[in-house]
Request: fold
Amino acid sequence: MGGYGHPDWAQEMGRYKYGCFYVFFLCFFLAPPALSSAGSESECASCHDQGKQLAKSAHASVACASCHLKREQYPHPADAPKPNCAVCHAQQAGDHARSTHGQALKRGDASAPDCEVCHGKAHELVSTKTADFHKAIPDTCGMCHSEIAAQYKESVHGKAVARGVMDAPVCTDCHGEHNILSPKDRSSTVSAARVPETCARCHADVRLARRFGLPPDRITTFQASFHGLALKAGSQTVANCASCHGYHSILPSNDPRSMTNPQNLAKTCGQCHPGAGSRFALGKVHWVEGAAEPAPVRFVRLFYLTMIPATIGLFFLHHGGDFLRKLIRTRLSPKAMPVRPAPVRFGELRMYGFERIEHALLAISFIVLIWSGFALKFPDQFWAKPLLLWEDRYPVRGTVHRVAAVVMMAAGFLHVLSLIASRKLRQHWYSLIPNKRDLTEAAAMMAYNLGLSQKKPRISSHSYVEKAEYWAVVWGTLIMGLTGLMLWANNLTLRFLPKQWLDAATAVHLYEAILAGLSILIWHFYTVIFDPDVYPLDPAFLTGRTVRQRPAEQHVQAENPPASAQDSNP
Reply:
């Protein structure tokens, strides 16, 4: 082998350069003819006249070869595939394949629409973002759904679209564009559970509400109503927006043909509530708390928003002062003695056997009522989830709530009957009748608990504490029972009373439940659990006798019968 300076090496390099140039010339200048990408459109136009149409379509910027594959040579190969929209529009094609239209095509229904039926031929289709395309959608859908399209064109939405309002909803805004599903499919945007969500796209939009003068509170007021809460929890039968306003033939409420016209409300509501509005006008359906609410509801709200804080505040002052005094006496005072658990000594008889049975029924039903009732109002909370497991098939919450209500009312009737039938229970009950001394004792004890008096007053064995609890239960049972029956028999209520009274009953039922729940937690539980005098529990509801120590002179002789009769039932 020679080096770089060897003469044979120079000759070999010359022959190599000549050979490379020759190969390049053959490949570049003598290559077989083919359609170049730059001239493909002009080459296609020499045989196909779709060029002018394509120039005005949404596909104007798309090269022919992007859709028409394997057509670079002429004549075109026999195995050249037909254009496939899914090559560029994979997501839309997948949605269409899963839709009712796509499934119909899969079953062999030749009348089911494909891409070309709705969008037009590929060389002529109009951009979906134009006003012309938006305005033409009802007519496009009307090719198969002519009756529905006619109803839509007469609706408030259809007329707005005809005027060229781009924000007005068309078929695809509610049903979807490519993923159109049957209303019976829970994933459909027009399924019963998702109708409010679909309507909210426009009716919860503040910008649109201001622009078109729409009430901005329709979705929020519906969601706060019984219908909205039940639908949110999974009920498939409760009324939604379309149940009252219609599906395609939605008209403004001032139109005499509208389902929500005041003259037609009785018929509309009567679909689910026979007889509703037959004697009185139903009144407002959508109303905002604190704004345009019915007068009875406003009175109820103001009354309870005043009474609940005042009542609970007094509870805290009374029991808080009592707890602090006992804390200082037993823990913080220099003379405080170490506190040791005292042996349980069953003292004064507080409850007879039958009264303990009544108390058990009352306590169990009350706890279930609180749980199931607030689950109806707040279905999103974690503690409500167990009651919602079968809500889409069966109204578990409502059924549990009503069963518990029947138990509580039955306990109340048993109590009244026992007082009538048993002289012994009746004499025991006499100690719970309020008298003037209760006010004096309550004022004196409150002053002592707040530090305004240094002398602890003597109070009766069945004092204002027990009487307040007892008569609060009586009052609460009556009020909750009455309003609960109005809500349970809502068809009957709407037949004989204006709707605003049902709204007022709903408000009373809610606020009274809040007051009752807080009263039990703060007043009753302190008395029987957290009071240091009985902690950790006063077992009177189990054994009949309390562990609370009272001065002997405070005991009423009638409350301490002979031992042989103390635990006997009436």
About this structure: The two ends are 129 Å apart (CA to CA). Confidence is low (pLDDT under 50) at residues 1-7, 22-38, 555-570. Residues 270 and 276 are 6 Å apart (CA to CA).
